[in-house]
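Side project, low priority. Logging it here so it doesn't get lost.
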Amino acid sequence: MADRATLERECAAFARYLGAGAGDAYVTEQYVAAHEAGVVELPGTTGFERSVVALARALPWSLRALDAHARVFGNGSLLRRKLVLLLAILETRAPHDEALDTPTAGSNLGMFVRMAWLGAVFATLVVVTALLLLPVRVVSLAGGAR
């Protein structure tokens, strides 16, 4: 498990990615507490999963691509567990709950165009990220074989 300062920075970066700003002290405290309780990094968490989280922590702008990759190739992975935990915490805390639950206005046509665009971006991110993470996966597998 990462140290407290690292988890606090991670929480702020992940909250920004989820569209909730940097979170607040309560959100950060709950996020850290869940990690300290051992409910996030479960037995069987792989070196590859830890590497992906380390990349997300070091390069927060890559979170969207790493999340798309994890959604397809590791839905129960460490990154996804951390994001789902934080999303659950944010959904119970004002004003983050409103920012996350308020629908965006627009026409049906606009919605379908946006969905098509987001789907295409998602597919592209999954393919590109899978290719970029291939060396990380190979190194993680080679390291795990020792």
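Brief comment: The two ends are 22 Å apart (CA to CA).
Revisit when time allows.
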